[in-house]
Amino acid sequence: MLAFRWSERDQARPTRSSLHTDAVLPPGVDTVLSVLRSSAVVLDEGDAVVKASSAAYALGLVRGGKLAVEPMLQMARDTRRDGEIRQVELDLPRRGTGRGDALAVSARVAPLGSRLVLLLVEDLTEARRIEAVRRDFVANVSHELKTPVGALSLLSEAVMDAADDPEAVTRFAGRMQIEATRLTNLVQELIDLSRVQNDDPLEDAEPVRVDELVAEAVDRCRHQAGTKQITMAVGGTADLHVWGNRGQLAAALGNLVENAVNYSAARTRVGIAARRVAAPGGDLIEVAVTDQGIGISERDRERVFERFYRVDPARSRATGGTGLGLSIVKHVVASHGGEVTVWSAEGQGSTFTLRLPEAGAVRDRERERKRDRELGRPLLGPEESAGAEHAADASDGPLSTREVTP
Q1: Same-domain status, 49 and 119
Q2: Which residues does residue 42 pair with via DSSP β-bridges, in sequence order?
Q3: With a threshold of 0.85, does the pTM exceed it?
Q4: Do 172 and 145 share a structural domain?
Q5: Which of 21, 131, 213, 231 is the most buried (most CB within 10 A)?
């Protein structure tokens, strides 16, 4: 008899998916709550949780059969008392994540029948983050455009005032050319970013020689490296090919090499090395760019690929950087089915690594897809390339190098 009573009590114990019984809910409410994207909690007259969605548990709204957020519990009590619908936005601490940022939510409470109260909670954290990024982007673009435009305006006035001084006119005209170049570069990078971040299908994709991309990137930075007496060392495996848009890939690798030169001290070394690595979805080509520069702190490493973010704003302005280069790199690599990673230590330098599908692997997959279509076989899903995320670290294995005199 005791065992029977104990088993009967266990069967009546509330669970995460259904607290108390579904019979107390009005007909159809359980079905509606199961398809809502919002986190849903139903409270009875004693503030006990009658029903809660899995999302409500994930957000930490319900613990131990009770609503754990006091402001929401007070709203529910007020609504139960007067029947009024209430809505409020709250910032909740993240529990168990160790993160200091808050969880932004919108909570709406409404009566459900005569005894129950329904709480719907929408997670606004991502929406707020996107809005903040958009707001910062507009502010940064306005500031970056205003700087060279204002300088050009002042320099043009100076030229007019110094019309009878050829030496001053020459000096001011040179400054105007510098500011005009900075403005042109900014506009071009904004155009490039708008093209690659739309995730449009690749146009004019073809096998691209990695050796040519590296040579073009080195040539692009030859003058800056020579001015700072920086040694450019090129090495790794020769005659590798990646599949993609040559212009976009050249811009991405060029941005990495240019950053390495700009953020390196004089008489140091910048290395560019390429190699092939095996992966379940097909071989990958890794191109690593290593410098001996100032390095990046752990806090900054999480944000270096954001638009207009600068680790050292003063140095970026001195070198004419726009803060868009790494963002362009990230989008270009993503559109090519690859990834970009960074290793860095303050005072020791940084290594940025591009991982891209090898041209042959892409060609083989496309050939297999075409054959499957012709034979009526089901096409493989995205998991065929999932192994790319587990490619080996770029620092593994020795790489031969050759130095390039700037």
Answers
A1: yes
A2: 51, 118
A3: no
A4: yes
A5: 213
